[in-house]
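Protein 1 of 2
SEQ + STRUCT:
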Amino acid sequence: MSLKILETCINCDVCEPACPNKAITQGEEIYIIHPDLCTECVGHFDEPQCVVVCPVECIEPDPNHVESESMLLAKLAMIQEK
């Protein structure tokens, strides 16, 4: 499942560099996570690094992008091929 950043984001800039897939970018008002690049750090870390570093706990699973661990690993393989 991809993650999403909630409106409570304070734009502290710590999540973007923590993402190994470069799935996080600055949006118009808050940071956003691109679901086509987010693997919840599967294949990299035991837990999503953006969640670990977020000081306001504003990152949660995105119910619009439900994926199994095997799907996330397949997505990671596709990202790494690019």
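Protein 2 of 2
SEQ + STRUCT:
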Amino acid sequence: MTELPDGDARPDSHNPFSAVPIEIVVSVGKARPLVRDLMRLGENAVLGLDRRVEDPVELYVGDKLVARGELEELEGDVPGQLAVRLTEIANLRDELG
């Protein structure tokens, strides 16, 4: 992964694929409970993850890691809405070539 460059990335207006929406999954951590423990979980149960609150999150498109970032609260009309500030982006050209 490489650091994000300073400045804004602008979509290529001549490429028809630039307007196609994609789904990005943000992974905050993983849990590996035993099935019996998972079956005992109920409302208000707490499932511990393998990460801490201040650890970076990972952004995936499909199964490809595309970036890492930090969770933060989005400023605006909806209090508590989460956002991700990107800190690293993957060099996808290396993976495709």
